[in-house]
């Protein structure tokens, strides 16, 4: 807990010391961190390998973008509404996807994300088709609060969302609910025979995960000012999965580090070479082969040794 | 155009599309059925095939040479990848394969971009296949008829290979019980490398054949991998006849969907897949999931 407070304070002081472009990167890293952490609930704690988490992000991004463009809803409420929408849609998605197990589950989530991608591509009046939604404003908050409209103000908004989500996830996985999730991860048949309706638990965790992933997306589109179909594309789903694995699945903190590492690596590599995807793929393969516990696993193992 | 000739042309279109989808799906389903591996890089091998085919045609001047060389080289790369990396992961859970092959997708995609560049490359078909024929007074490209024939030949070929040859027998046995096959003195690892190579080679064959229609481009892999997964899931993971049936079904949905509901054609395929999964979670001809 002490470390948590230290890190939170450090992040809160970041705008004092960092130049503006670094703050932009950091804000995006925190948003992606929130997304990766939400996926970790499924992948790391329940062994539900979702290959369609971009669906949650895209849903949130489009929904908040649409609300900000076409209604006068204050920004925090638009973000919240988008997050809730993603969670509600997830219940339906999960109901179908949990009919299957293992690899079939992964493929179904992929199919759902692609279905959404197709919808985003075709539903021109709402999603703007291939152009996406552009010029999404950071509107003023309720009661005339304008703090979200500045870059640093928005950073604090994102930071508060991430810290809140982290504390929520941590208490969730420490709760009896979290224990059942880990039971499903280790041995679903056994958990079922202990009297837990594992399918309901799985649907619940997908809904929570999507709501938080939707929150990340909802934070992204006012930050970037746009939402486009790339946010729903399968390649992005894969990248989020990479962040979770590289960071360290089943640790919550790890995926956030993974997302930051991903952002930093992409930023640094793309300065030196156009082929950053090549090195990226190699690093990722290296992690899966030799360090399945990820960055966080490596850090904590060293700390213990 | 009267109804009969319209239907004939559309059905042939759908069948030629089905042939391409079948090449994609059958390799993936063979690999899954035998190795329990989801090869995320399958679409990339399809794309690799298209580019290799382009180069082979340029160097040798013969489309037929590309049709042989592309799959051979891609299959070799696939087999080498299995021996070098995947083999070390058999004791880990399924997700490790999914993720390593995803990494391979990035690496291979980037290598293809470095070697062949970003432009779409047009592949010429030989003169004997480039004309049109008239079916019930409607013009139809010969190349699409050739695709239908190629699909049928490969389907029968794979079926006979699995049923009649010793290697086919070993492959089927390995998919049933790898440990027992190993105990009987067969090098199971070699069978696995072989089947991974064959699967990737089949995808590449599809890529070479698709290149004259779609031209070889960097966008191929993304669409292909999704199509391949849809085929495998609808047909049933690991089921060879299932992949054939699913390829035909999906192709008809795509072709007629594009004609009647152009706005929903993209979604139709996924809806079909969801429908199948809700009714039969293991796929049409698969074992229950």
Mind explaining what this structure looks like?
The complex is a heterodimer of chains A (305) and B (289). A two-stranded antiparallel ribbon of chain A has the order 1-2. By secondary structure, chain A is mainly α. Chain A contains 14 helices and 2 strands. Chain A has one domain. In chain A, α3 packs antiparallel against α4, α4 packs antiparallel against α10 (198-224) and α8 crosses α10 (198-224). With 289 residues, chain B is an all-alpha fold. Chain B has one domain. In chain B, 76% of the residues lie in helices and 3% in strands. Chain B contains 12 helices and 2 strands, in the order αααααββααααααα. Chain B has helices spanning 3-35, 42-60, 63-84, 94-116, 127-130, 142-164, 166-176, 178-183, 188-214, 220-235, 240-260, 265-279, and strands spanning 132-135, 138-141. In chain B, strands 1-2 form a two-stranded antiparallel sheet. In chain B, β1 and β2 (138-141) form a beta hairpin. In chain B, 50% of the residues are buried.
Please give the structural blueprint.
The complex is a heterodimer of chains A (305) and B (289).
Chain A lengths: L1 H16 L2 H27 L7 H17 L4 H23 L4 H21 L1 H4 L5 E2 L16 H24 L1 H11 L1 H6 L4 H27 L1 E2 L6 H14 L5 H20 L3 H15 L3 H11 L1
Antiparallel strand pairs in A: 1-2
Helix pairs in contact in A: 1-7, 2-7, 2-10, 2-11, 2-12, 3-4, 3-5, 3-10, 4-5, 4-10, 7-8, 7-10, 8-10, 11-12, 11-14, 12-13, 12-14
Chain B lengths: L2 H33 L6 H19 L2 H22 L9 H23 L10 H4 L1 E4 L2 E4 H23 L1 H11 L1 H6 L4 H27 L5 H16 L4 H21 L4 H15 L10
Antiparallel strand pairs in B: 1-2
Helix pairs in contact in B: 1-6, 1-9, 1-10, 1-11, 2-3, 2-4, 2-9, 2-10, 3-9, 6-7, 7-9, 10-11, 10-12, 11-12
């Amino acid at each position: 807990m002490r470390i948590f407070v230290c890190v939170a304070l450090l992040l809160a002081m970041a705008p004092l010391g960092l130049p503006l472009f670094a703050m932009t990167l950091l804000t995006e890293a925190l948003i992606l961190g929130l997304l990766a952490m939400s996926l970790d609930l499924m992948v790391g704690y329940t062994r539900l390998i979702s290959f369609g988490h971009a669906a949650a992000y895209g849903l949130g991004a489009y929904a908040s973008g649409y609300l900000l463009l076409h209604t006068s809803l204050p920004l925090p409420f638009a973000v919240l509404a988008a997050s809730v929408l993603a969670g509600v849609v997830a219940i339906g998605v999960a109901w179908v996807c949990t009919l299957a197990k293992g690899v079939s589950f992964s493929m179904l989530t992929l199919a759902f994300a692609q279905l959404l991608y197709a919808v985003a591509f075709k539903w021109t009046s709402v999603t703007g088709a291939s152009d996406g939604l552009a010029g999404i404003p950071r509107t003023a908050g309720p009661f005339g609060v304008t703090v979200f409209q500045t870059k640093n103000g928005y950073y604090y908004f994102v930071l508060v969302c991430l810290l809140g989500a982290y504390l929520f996830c941590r208490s969730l996985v420490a709760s009896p609910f979290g224990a059942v999730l880990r039971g499903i991860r280790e041995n679903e048949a056994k958990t079922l025979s202990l009297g837990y309706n594992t399918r309901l638990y799985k649907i619940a965790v997908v809904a929570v995960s999507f709501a938080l992933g939707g929150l990340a997306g909802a934070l992204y589109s006012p930050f970037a000012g746009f939402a486009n179909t790339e946010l729903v594309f399968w390649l992005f789903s894969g990248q989020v999965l990479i962040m979770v694995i590289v960071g360290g699945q089943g640790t919550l903190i790890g995926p956030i580090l993974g997302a930051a590492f991903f952002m930093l690596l992409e930023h640094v590599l793309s300065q030196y070479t156009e082929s950053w995807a090549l090195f990226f793929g190699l690093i990722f393969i290296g992690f899966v082969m030799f360090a399945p516990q990820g960055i966080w696993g490596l850090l904590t193992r060293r700390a213990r040794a | 155009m009267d109804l009969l000739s319209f239907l004939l042309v559309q059905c042939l279109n759908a069948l030629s599309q089905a042939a391409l989808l079948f090449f994609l799906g059958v390799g993936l389903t063979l690999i899954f059925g035998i190795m329990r591996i989801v090869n995320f890089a399958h679409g990339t091998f399809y794309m690799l095939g298209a580019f290799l085919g382009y180069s082979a045609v340029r160097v040798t001047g013969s489309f037929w040479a590309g049709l042989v060389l592309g799959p051979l080289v891609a299959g070799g790369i696939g087999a080498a990848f299995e021996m070098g990396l995947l083999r070390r992961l058999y004791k880990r859970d399924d997700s490790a394969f999914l993720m390593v092959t995803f990494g391979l997708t990035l690496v291979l995609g980037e290598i293809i971009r470095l070697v062949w560049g970003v432009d779409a490359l047009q592949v010429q078909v030989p003169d004997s296949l480039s004309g049109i024929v008239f079916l019930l007074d409607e013009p139809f490209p010969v190349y699409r008829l050739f695709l239908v024939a190629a699909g049928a030949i490969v389907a029968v070929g794979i079926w006979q290979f699995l049923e009649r040859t010793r290697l086919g027998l070993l492959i089927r046995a390995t998919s049933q019980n790898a440990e027992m096959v190993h105990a009987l003195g067969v090098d199971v690892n070699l069978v696995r490398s072989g089947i991974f190579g064959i699967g990737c080679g089949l995808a590449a064959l599809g890529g070479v054949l698709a290149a004259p229609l779609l031209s070889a481009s960097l966008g191929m892999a993304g669409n292909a991998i999704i199509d391949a997964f849809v085929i495998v899931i609808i047909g049933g993971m690991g089921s060879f006849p299932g992949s054939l049936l699913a390829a035909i079904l999906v192709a008809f949905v795509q072709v007629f969907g594009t004609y009647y509901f152009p706005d929903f054609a993209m979604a139709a395929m996924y809806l079909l897949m969801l429908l199948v999964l809700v009714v039969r979670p293991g796929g049409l001809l698969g074992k229950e999931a």
